Amino acid sequence: MIAAATAVFLVILGIVDLTFQQISFFLVFIVLNFIAFFIGKSAPARTLAIFASINVILLISAMLNQGEMAMYSILGIGIFNSIMFSNIYTLAISGLGKYTSQGSSLVVMAILGGAIMPIFQGYLADYFGVQHSFIIPVFCYAYILFFGLYCSKYLNVSHSEDAVSGH
Fold first, then answer.
1. CB 90: neighbour CB atoms within 10 A?
2. What 3-state class would DSSP assign to 142?
3. Helix (H, G, I), strand (E, B) or coil at 75
4. Is 33 exposed, middle or buried (0-12, 13-18, 19+ CB in 10 A)?
5. Share of the chain above pLDDT 70, in %
6. pLDDT at position 167 over 60
7. 114: helix, strand or coil
């Protein structure tokens, strides 16, 4: 996993017209990503909660800071979205038994929320400013954090394959 991340970083460094110093902040996020994965210990709920909490912190940082710090906070969110859907999907359909196909359909349809929330954020941005509008995704990630914590407490899902295969 570390070799793949290093290779991707080097490819991006070779493609973009930026210096190492200009994109080196991604190394910090990549290291934090690996640390969060190791803390999560292959538990989808715990990993989801950790990544969602990091995104809440990054969003609050973007709201409170200016310039490059706010920009880097927003850019860092993407790397911590890496496991979100797969873990949400795994946790949401866990234990549904014969209703797994209907549950998985509902989870896929719930993606519509990703298309609706930007409308509300845009409304807030128009009236209160862009930085204040990030309160909308803060609440969204806080809900994902709650979902991860809830599932960590009430579901016993240790690997994605276990939830999908029904074991």
1. 23
2. helix
3. helix
4. buried
5. 92
6. no
7. helix
Q: Round the CA-based radius of gyration of the chain to a whole number and report it.
A: 18
Structure tokens that stand for 53 in this block: 């909490």
Paired tokens of 120: 């509300």
Q: Which string of b and e fits 40-72 if b means at least 16 CB within 10 Å?
A: beebbbbbbbbbbbbbbbbbebbbeeeeeebeb
In the numeric block, the tokens 């709650």 are attached to 146
Give the start-end residues of each E strand in the chain.
Answer: none
pLDDT over threshold 50, residue 164? no
Q: How far apart are CA 39 and CA 43, in angstroms?
A: 9
91-130 residue pLDDT tens = 999 989 999 999 999 998 888 878 899 999 999 999 999 9
Q: Using DSSP, state whether 129 is helix, strand or coil.
A: coil
Contacts of 157 (CB under 8 A, 6+ apart): 43, 44, 45, 90, 91, 94, 151, 163
Range 93-99, long-range pairs (CB < 8 A, 24+ positions): 93/163, 93/164, 94/151, 94/155, 94/157, 94/163, 95/155, 95/163, 97/166
pTM summary value: 0.80
